[in-house]
Design goal:
The chain is of the alpha/beta class. It has 25 helices and 27 strands. 32% of the residues lie in helices and 18% in strands. Strands 21-22-23-24-27-26-25 form a seven-stranded mixed barrel. It binds alpha-methylisocitric acid and iron/sulfur cluster.
Length: 647
């Protein structure tokens, strides 16, 4: 097959369209994943579509975000997920098995395949040459039922890697360097495909760190070619048979190119409160650190925790600093324990935590007020830690460990002399062992044959077909880079409601405006106004579903993040792009009317709409939607639309 790695995988799965950037394509799906926060909606929608069997090769349901089960509603959700997997034929990972992307990498990720996941970091798989795309839960439900997944053919960017990383520079610093250069919007509409001589200088694990955090660039996906290092990684997991070689064709053509000389990459941090607020560690050095957290789907693997253990071995962390290690999977935790590293970490003063997302979404280990938290995670959006005015820095495991010793942010190259630490070079074991594999229950081991729903689990609301008139107040005006964490936070007290949309909706946009939900319900219609990159971050479809439930009919924004825009179509909310002048002029509370017969305009493929504001002035708003997305809007969303189609 010819072309880039991305084109080869897509061509192999293509069922509709052609691989021209910007064209809508439909692709076959081999694998899906969901987790406890997105999975309940996935299965409720799977059931609402009257689907009775999983049709993809492997559908995997993880339980990783809320494993503490501090409320029966979460435990009920987990039971529902297990029983749905048993009933319809999916793999179920017991709560505590680990973070979905790490568990997936250990057990399922296979080069050349396509995975659609109800989590934004699904592109992690790209480090092993699998194309992973994050999407809303409804897209996953429909794909599990055997239907193609639709997306706009992304531009493929060649990220050419040259040279080799210096001591103390890591894969995390490579992706932070890209964030520094390209920003959180830099990857929108693109797949970042890594090539060049620097690829072989990176282990397969390091590649997955980079592809994982490509999500923070807004990229559709990120992918590496495969080679002997990929094969060796799979062999260690006992899955060498999954190996296939995929490399770009000699004359593969890319839409753009970025060159990174690995030898010039230095230890970096992302300062509060955006992953692209990147600076050399040296610039942040001396900042006192109250909390150091190691883990997450970016840096929670055995390969990430091992350097931390090596650096802390025989030493004590600073008395003013707390340090927590949450391995990315139970298998990683078990290996660390069996090899003695857990004991070393504990002796150094580290608190070992469960293999879960936990602190990454503010479920546990919430930082103290007016304190600094240094994390090996991928997101530091303000308030995501569970503390509204937080100060969170992102870094590599090496920087985290050195800073835990120093009690302040420190460049490990400077700390090396003071603490006598050396770069933690290490050999990986020949085999990744873990008896905890048994926590992953394959469909043939399933013990349930009917879904069990607790009292908190409510049916998915259905949208209404689009009508001719669309008018209402602007319910809220927001700035740039509003994240889905602003729309529906993922902290514990809110996440217990993920399977109960009516209740969950009362939290919509509360972090921006406490009174929003009541105002929206009362207005029974209206619009949200936002700046650039509206809806960046997670895949959570609740960020569209809850506004829909509250009666919001559309979003007027300067630009949208990819997954969230797809979720708006999926739930029948019209996403209209407005110019800077309109954005500046429009105010919260203004009455907006779409002058055209919206239904006809959407059906006819019109791109320009006129909005009249306060019966006073007019402006143009653009609808960038293909025919499939227009059909979704007309039907009131993908659920009613797919039901009509199945009927
Ligand atoms: C996140 O990192 O924000 C999450 C929580 O994993 C989300 C999924 C969700 O909100 O359920 C994501 O990244 O998609
Ligand atoms: Fe979990 Fe954080 Fe990764 Fe999301 S980003 S999957 S919350 S570890």
């Amino acid at each position: 097959m010819s072309g880039t790695v991305t084109e080869q995988i897509l061509a192999d799965h293509l069922v509709e369209g052609s691989l021209e950037p910007g064209e809508e394509i439909g692709i076959d799906v081999d694998q899906t994943l969901a987790h406890d926060l997105t999975g309940t909606m996935v299965w409720l929608q799977f059931e609402a579509l009257d689907l009775d069997e999983v049709k993809v090769d492997e559908a995997v349901q993880h339980c990783d975000h809320q494993t503490y089960q501090s409320d029966h509603r979460t435990t009920d959700d987990h039971r529902y997920l297990r029983s749905a997997c048993g009933t319809y034929g999916a793999h179920f990972a017991r709560p505590g098995t680990g973070i979905c992307h790490q568990v997936h990498k250990e057990n399922f990720t296979a080069p050349g395949k396509v995975i659609i996941g109800a989590d934004s970091h699904t592109p992690t798989a790209g480090g092993l040459g699998q194309l992973g795309i994050g999407s809303g839960g409804l897209d996953v439900a429909v794909a599990m039922g055997g239907a193609p997944y639709y997306l706009e053919m992304p531009a493929v960017v060649n990220v050419r890697l040259e040279g080799e990383l210096d001591e103390w520079a890591t894969a995390k610093d490579v992706i932070l360097e890209l964030l520094r250069r390209l920003s959180v919007k830099g990857g929108v509409g693109k797949v970042l495909e890594y090539t060049g001589p620097g690829v072989e200088a990176l282990s397969a694990h390091e590649r997955t760190v980079i592809t994982n955090m490509g999500t923070e660039l807004g990229a559709t996906s990120s992918v590496f070619p495969t080679d002997e290092r990929t094969r060796a990684f799979l062999a260690r997991l006992g899955r060498e048979d999954d190996y296939v070689e995929i490399t770009p064709d000699e004359d593969a053509e890319y839409d753009d190119e970025v060159v990174v000389d690995l030898s010039t990459v230095e230890p970096l941090v992302a300062a509060p409160s955006m992953p692209d607020n990147v600076m050399p560690v040296a610039e942040a050095a001396g900042t006192p650190v109250d909390q150091v957290l190691v883990g997450s789907c970016t840096n929670g693997a055995y390969e990430d925790v091992l350097p931390v253990a090596r650096l802390l071995e025989g030493r004590q962390i600073h008395p003013k600093t707390e340090a927590v290690v949450a391995p990315g999977s139970k298998q990683a935790a078990e290996m660390l324990a069996r090899n003695g590293w857990t004991a070393e970490l504990m002796a150094a003063g580290v608190n070992m935590s469960e293999a879960t997302c936990g602190a990454c979404i503010g479920a546990g280990h919430v930082p103290a007020s007016d304190s600094v938290s240094l994390r090996t995670f991928n997101r530091n959006f303000e308030g995501r830690s569970g503390m509204e005015e937080d100060t969170v820095y992102l870094c590599s495991p090496e920087v985290a460990a050195a800073s835990a010793l120093a009690g302040e942010i420190v460049d490990p190259r400077d700390a090396a002399d003071e603490y006598g630490i050396e770069p933690p070079g290490f050999e990986m074991p020949d085999e990744y062992v873990g008896a905890s594999d048994g926590d992953l229950i394959a469909p043939d081991r399933a013990a349930d044959d009917a879904p069990v729903k607790g009292p908190n689990i409510k049916a998915v609301p259905l949208g209404e077909p689009l009508e001719a008139d669309l008018a209402g107040p602007t319910l809220l005006k927001m700035g740039d880079n509003i994240t889905t964490d602003h729309v529906i936070p993922a902290t514990q007290e809110v996440s217990v409601l993920r399977s109960n949309v009516p209740e969950l909706s009362t939290h919509t946009l509360k972090r921006v405006d406490e009174a929003f939900a009541d105002r929206a319900l009362e207005a029974d219609g209206g619009f949200l106004v936002a700046g650039e990159n509206y809806g960046q971050g997670s895949s959570r479809e609740h960020a569209a579903l809850c506004p829909m439930y509250l009666g919001v009919e559309g979003v007027l924004a300067r630009s949208f993040a990819r997954i969230h825009k797809a979720n708006l179509f999926n739930f029948g909310l019209i996403p209209l792009t407005i110019g800077e002048e309109t954005y500046e002029r429009i105010e919260q509370g203004d009455d907006v009317e779409i002058v055209d017969d919206v239904r006809t305009a959407v059906d006819e493929g019109r791109e320009e709409f006129t909005i009249r504001v306060d019966d006073d002035w007019e402006a143009v708003a653009r609808l960038d939607a293909n025919s499939r997305e227009r059909e979704l809007l007309a039907a009131g969303g993908k659920l009613p639309h797919t039901r009509q189609q199945f009927a």
